[in-house]
Amino acid sequence: MKYLIKFYTALIFLLFFSFNSFATEKIKIGLVIPLSGENKELGQTILKSVRLAINDINDNRIVIVPKDNQSDPNKTLEVSKELYKEGIKIIIGPIFKKNTFKLNQLSDDLIFLSFTNKIDESQKNILSAGVNSVSQFNAIKKFQSLNKIERSYLLAPNTSAIEEIKTGVKKSRIKLKDEFYYDPDPTLITKQIEEITRYRIRKQNLEDEVKRVENSNEANKEKKLAQLEKLDTIGGINFDSVIIADFEEDLKSVATSLIYTDIPPTRVTYITLNQWFDKSLLNESMIQPIYFPSVNYENYINYLDKYNNNFQTNSNQIAFLSYDLTGLVYYLLFKNNFIVDNKIFYKKNSFKGKIGIFEIDKNIITHQLNFYVIENAEIKKIF
């Protein structure tokens, strides 16, 4: 009996010690961002945002280990190796796609959650966590279905982003009437829009009809001419919506060209990509209503306010993403009993963050986005 008591006492001590060690064991997560050089302000903002997330998570087992990659691919590889030697298996970062190119030299059990929105399935240890084109076209596809939009014309710039746009179209399986990739030179945009909308033909149709009525003996001739004077063109178009895959001034330039060719947003539905609630669009009454997918607006504004209150400075979209990525990593670790294993990123999972719902499947992240319209100088939620 005495030996049995000693055995149970030792067992209880061992179990207590093991549990206590597990409860206090630190889990390190790497953070590879530029803390010096031309992008240091962006890196500092991300670092503050990650610390804000850690503070909200309130679990002292989680430790963030930041490293400065100076926005350089070689430096990114170097600091990632350092983190791996420290036993770190999960790294948030890097920010830019160019800084991921050498990371396939590292062990497959080191996972990166990059901020880029460019999908690259060739690098299995890198998850592109940005709001990618697939997520955006998935949301547009849902909007089409809800509003019985069946003939969308995709207008996109012929730039380096063209492959990413084509990937989004292909993987989302969105239905398009047609696609046109235009030269982004502002001096050429209007002419290109004229051609694809058959503007000259429709304009000529109007001129021909005016001449016909003028030379006719119709009883209501003056009334018809008065009606024709209100028109810019005559003739149908074979699409019911345009998806303008562009941003800022280029987006406005394309939309303005559509209006010039007598295809205003009252005639076809104007849809664009995630504009991150660009406030300058509120002043563009001529191109409203204009619809777009994006992150949860209310959560985004609340995050910006919270960041500003904590650090007395402004945050940005990428830092907003870093806040959610920190929460995502914690959530997956929690579901895996805080065992660090890169397989957690291969399993089908979903996580509700501030941005919206993250969906993970076979090392690919997509987002379930909300949908908004800018109309009458206001941002309104559609779904």
Summarize the topology.
Layout: H1 2-24, E1 27-33, H2 40-57, E2 62-68, H3 73-85, E3 90-92, E4 111-114, E5 126-128, H4 133-146, E6 152-157, H5 162-172, E7 178-182, H6 186-196, H7 199-214, H8 221-229, E8 241-244, H9 248-260, E9 269-272, E10 290-294, H10 297-311, H11 317-335, E11 349-352, E12 357-361, E13 364-368, E14 370-375, E15 378-381
Parallel strand pairs: 1-2, 1-3, 3-4, 4-5, 6-7, 6-8, 8-9, 9-10
Antiparallel strand pairs: 10-14, 11-12, 12-13, 14-15
Helix pairs in contact: 2-11, 4-5, 6-9, 7-8
Describe the structure.
- This protein is an alpha/beta fold.
- It folds into two domains: 2-131 and 298-345, Rossmann fold (3-Layer(aba) Sandwich), CATH 3.40.50; 133-295 and 371-381, 3-Layer(aba) Sandwich (Rossmann fold).
- It is built from eleven helices and 15 strands.
- The protein has helices at residues 2-24, 40-57, 73-85, 133-146, 162-172, 186-196, 199-214, 221-229, 248-260, 297-311, 317-335, and strands spanning 27-33, 62-68, 90-92, 111-114, 126-128, 152-157, 178-182, 241-244, 269-272, 290-294, 349-352, 357-361, 364-368, 370-375, 378-381.
- The strands form three sheets. A seven-stranded mixed β-sheet has the order 7-6-8-9-10-14-15.
- The chain is elongated, with a radius of gyration of 27 Å.
- The chain starts with a helix and ends with a strand.
